[in-house]
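Usage

Read records sequentially. Each one opens with the input sequence:
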Amino acid sequence: MVSHQLNRIASLCSHAILLDRGAVVQSGTPSECIAAYLQNQESLRLPGQEISSIRIDRIRSNHGDVLRSGEQVCFWVDGSVPDGVRKQSEVVCVRVRSAENGQILFGTSNDSADVDVPMYGVFTLEIGLQINVPPGLYLVEALVRDRDLGRRVANGPRLCVRVVESKHFDGSVQMNASFRLMTLREVQDHPEG
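and closes with the structure output:
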C-alpha cells in the first residue's frame, strides 16, 4: 500500500518504508516511519506569511522523544520578541495532536495559566503535562495566536514524540488507577464503610 494517510498506515501495516525520490530513507515499524516522515516534513516547512511579534525557535522535552503513558513531562518552548514590543493580544499556544489521525487532543496557552510572555527579548516557557494518552505517535506543537484576530498568526516548531505503555489500560485516556485490597475488618473500621 502506498499512502500519505498516516492513520491508514498505522492501522493497516505491520512494516513500512519511507521513500524520498525513490530512495529508502527509513525502514521499520509504521510508527518509526511515520516519525521519520513527520520530522522530515518539519524540516521542509517554509516560513509562511507570519505577522506575529513573537518568534518561536524550538520546542523540547526533558524526556526526549520517547515518553511513557501517564508520566509527567516538562516541555520548553524557546522564543523571542525580536523587534520592539510584543502585541498584548498575542499568546503562545501548545497543543498535542495525534500523528495518526491529526486530531487535536489538548491545547493550552500561556495566558490560560496567567503567565506573561515578556514584552521584548528572549524567553523560555516551561509547560508541565501529564501524558495521559495511549501508546502511539503524537505531535507537540507550538504556535502564536492573536486573541483579537481570533486566529493563529505564526506557526512554531513541533516535536514528534512516541508514547510507550507504562501500565496497561483500555480506552483512550490514561487515568493512572490505583488499587488497594482491604480485609473485611478494614472495611468495617473504615469511616465510609
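Summary fields computed downstream for this record:
- Strands lie at 16-20, 23-28, 55-61, 66-68, 72-81, 90-98, 104-109, 121-130, 136-146, 151-164.
- The chain has two domains: 1-44, 49-170.
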